[in-house]
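Let us practice reading a record.
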Amino acid sequence: MSIRTSVRNRVLLTAALSATLLAYAQPSAFASPATTVNSPTAITSQSVSAKEISSSEYAAFLKDKFGLTLPENVSRGEFFVDVVRLLDLSPADKPVTFNDLNTSSPYYNAAAALHQNGLLSSDTANASAQLKAVNAVQLALRLAGFKELAYTYSEAKAEKAIAKLPIKLSSLNKQTKQELAAAIDTGLLPASYFNQIAPNAPVSADLANLLIGKTLVLKGQYKHYLGYVGDSDIYTKLADAYHGSVIIKDDKLQTIVDTALEQGLVTGYNLKDSQYDSNFIESLKLVYGHSDLQHALQLIGLLRSEGLEAKVQFEPKTSAFVYLKEWGEPGVSDQYEVRQISNGNYIEYAKEYDISFEFEKAADKQRFNAIISAYAKKNEENQLGLLVSSWWQPLYYSLTPLADYKEITNNKIQLGRYYAQSFSLKEQSKATIDGFKHVDPSVNVQSYDFWTDIPFFNYLNGEPL
């Protein structure tokens, strides 16, 4: 290996592990010691389609992201308020007159928003009445944006689609038949819930959670992921996502962070695109950062061999740092780009990634640490028995507390869909924020604490490996 290549690898590792910014100068309850990670039951390959999302998973998502727990008996007005908030529907820009609802009602604004958005056609809100299952399905279909599809159905086509529902066709008007049929054909209403669509049956919390969750899916507002660790095609999807990713650029954002880098106020940063954010449930989520594709593929295989199932999301990332001119010409690569700055040094932008995992249970999330420590944590040169390109200080973290992890701080600037972020020790966060504000006093820097693995914490703290 040449000196230049050795230098580059060392610097890239530093940047990849952390975009640490320097402004102005008890044992685990679940994880076993690394030496005892053995004899797990491996996961068998499966199809993505085998993973139907349950109502309980949707309910957990609604509680985690929105603090919403539906009561067993759901009124129409309560449902209106919930879906308008969850889907962030635009409020009515002019008064809406209802026969049975005045502006002082806690349900008025939601009903008016639904009415103005063409989702509630009647002038009678009937907000205090219990929501019927049929009406819940109809509203969910409209909220999901499929009403035009429904109205393409002939009555005969609609009746064929809903023939297995426990309800007399003669009791339904054409529009209701069309909307129920489209709900079935789009998967909004699964066959396992057909028995709940009985005449005048109230919607259960179970069905309501399912309908809201599936509506979020169809609107692109649920979780985002390539698939599961155990999917037969997850390696192809992960490789395709990696090869399709590019160096992230945003002129307005990088004007701020690159200026800080050039002035020596910071040592580096990461750029990410929020459209790839997983939106996973935080108590089950871990994020793992790296730069090598084969390492990611082997990591999936490792988790399968250890019996850990999880959702998998690929999140492109770019790390930026100063490449010193005395290290030699930076060269050309599809893995990085460089830009020379006024003092002769360069800013290098390296292609990397984060993989977000959402485990099936908290104990699996806790096990991850012992598995990485045993098989993806480098402790000596030419060490055998590790994943390819394992790091001395692997980087993975959680937004919820974990035993055997250390608390640090993320300092983040977001402009539109793109954001720059830096991980720092908690006591260095203010200096990090001051560094950015020295460049642009108006910039909004968000900071929050989270939990990272001990080797990475030691790296931030300047401690031995």
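A brief commentary: The chain has two domains: 55-219, 227-461.
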